[in-house]
Amino acid sequence: MMDTCALRLSSSSRSCPLMLRSNNKSLWNTTFLNHHHTLLSNSRQCLKLESTASSNNNTPKKKELDEGAFEAQRLRLDAEARGAMAAEAASHPKAWKWVIRKRIWDMMEANNFSHNPRPVHHRIPNFVGASTAARKMSGLDVFQVAECVKVNPDSPQKQVRFLTLSAGKKLLTPQPRLRTGFFSLLHSNFLTWDNYTINQACTSLGVAKHGRPIGLDDDNIKVDLIVIGSVAVDPNTGARLGKGEGFAELEYGMLRYMGAIDDSTPVVTSVHDCQLVDDIPVEKLLIHDVPVDIICTPTQVIFTQTSIPKPQGIYWDKLSPEKLGQIRILRELKKRIEKETGQKLPTGPSEKLPPTAQRSRRS
Predict the structure, then answer these.
(1) Which residues are registered as beta bridge partners of 270?
(2) Alpha helices in 92-234 (DSSP H)
(3) What is the pLDDT of residues 314-340, one digit of tens each?
(4) Phi/psi at 179 (nearest 5 deg)?
(5) Are 304 and 291 a contacting pair, CB within 8 Å?
(6) Between β-strands 170-174 and 148-151, what pairing exists: parallel, antiparallel or unpaired?
(7) Which residues lie within the region annotated Disordered (predicted)?
(8) Which of 177, 187, 229 is nearest to 353 (CA)?
(9) How many Å apart are CA 169 and CA 191, to the nearest integer?
(10) Contact (CB, 8 A) for 170 and 155
(11) Could you tell me the pTM of the whole model?
């Protein structure tokens, strides 16, 4: 029942499948790009940018951001989330996902494969060579033809966000952990054209300061490329593990609901070479786990040819009441779907969330 609802509420207007089965990378690029250019020319309109809006006296001024309060809230929520993940890992020390995550985190710490923030445990690691991997990503055909790119807000993908804005593309990025908002849209047209401002716009504070908040009703947004962070990824299957909070999956599900993406939208991740693994059991992945099509490391680009199905929406029976209580936009979406369908959506089992964790000041 729930899956049918999720499918029905996801956009099916872009139904051409993504062709990832060829071992020939050139054929993959050609086939994908032919389809992608058709989408761009025939069916897609990203948000139109009104260059004269700022000069319109009737346009309300954006409320001035209290930068200190914003940063304090971000650090507090980050501490709470990392505490929750640590408690979850401690309560299930032999769970296969946490075993793989801990192995990668321990190895990166032991070999100094990561920059600050450290320790890397319970984070998407800000790996050494992240900028090099980002440049490799920017050279991909799927990146170059994309007009709107959704990028996660984590540190190792900061250069991807910078290159997205520098290339004149639209950048869609979520508010951290979706607790303070939903998605924000940024474009170089919104910004003073200098490296300082573009760099600032690539941070959580800069997104809040320069971005335009996006709501669930912005159904004319079409995302051409999704970039997500990873703790571990299997280059042979495209199976991916994040840091354990599930926000990449929630963001993906909400974009499906909005009709902004479909199965053909490529998913790319950037990681250190040491984060490539071969022991993620595909048969144990959950229905909401998001696979990746392309992996960029500092030394290589890998086309995974993944056959893992992509999520079709939000799986409400996996979300606990406590998780819903933390994320306002999910509560609003749930109420909306229930009102539209006249049916009550399921809720996942309850979970005990740990108290706020302490963290050291970030370098």
Answers:
(1) 296
(2) 96-110, 130-138, 141-145, 158-166, 195-201, 204-210
(3) 999 988 898 888 888 889 889 999 999
(4) -85, -30
(5) yes
(6) parallel
(7) 338-363
(8) 177
(9) 12
(10) no
(11) 0.73
